[in-house]
Amino acid sequence: MKRKFLTAGVILLLLFLLFFPGEALAATKSGMKLWLNTLMPTLLPFIILTGVLVHTDGIKKIMSPAEPLFKHILGLSSYGGYVFLLGLLCGYPMGAKLASDLYTERKISRREAHYLTTFSNNASPAFIISYLGHACLKDRILPHTLFLCFLISDLMCMLFFRFIVYKNRTIGIISDEKKETSQVLSSGTILDVSIMNGFEAIARLGGYILLFSILAACVSHFWPFSPHLKYIPLSYLEVTTGLSLISVCDLPFTVKCILSVTATAFGGICILAQTRSILNKDLHILPYFLSKCMNGILTGILFCLLILTKVI
User: Can you give the pTM of this predicted structure?
Assistant: First the structure.
């Protein structure tokens, strides 16, 4: 059944490319511009350097002083704390990528990797402030208010999964799993492997962005219902494209804000596919998907409360 849907989707995109080459080309350029100008310069250096730190065990040395803090506040190991910080700063899909890599190297447990995907894989502060706040919402919402809304909902998701789903105060324990020692590699080999892994990961992300950009253009072209309604599926399909379309539509500003922040918190199906592609095969996508649905709903509710209380 999955292959049938995949085949049908591929045929649809091929027909769209053949019969509407102008729209397809514009969508492809937009997606590749996002990949080249945003994802590659912001994520690739961190992926490469983190790969070096993982193989040299540098993360443990750097984060050890703060381990008690992460353990008691977030229920994480020092490696998990590193994933949380980098995921918070770099945005999608850095948190999931680091959690998967550290699990593959047996630095964290499977349980901690799943736990990390529920709250460390989010839109970056730069994306929220610069793209969402400035480019899409025209600076009509204060940047710190916007970012605080996302941060609070993310922390609420963390508390839910930590105490309700996993029912444990401390997740970052690997004593119940066999911790394997990574193969000792030379410095040159470590650097080469880290660079190649980084380019492989970033190329995979670029492919997903390209395909979903074309799919978003296809959905927009053939949308059979009211033009106002198409912004909802488009924003949840590919968030960057969706946000840009919402920003120029003639919906009331409050409605545009709620749609925009909810879609940004959810991340979109494109980010979901990217995250699944970089996760270790032993890790499930379901915890991440559930957390993103919860995160989107909570962010929308918080934003509505801020509007009702006239904070914004």
Answer: 0.86
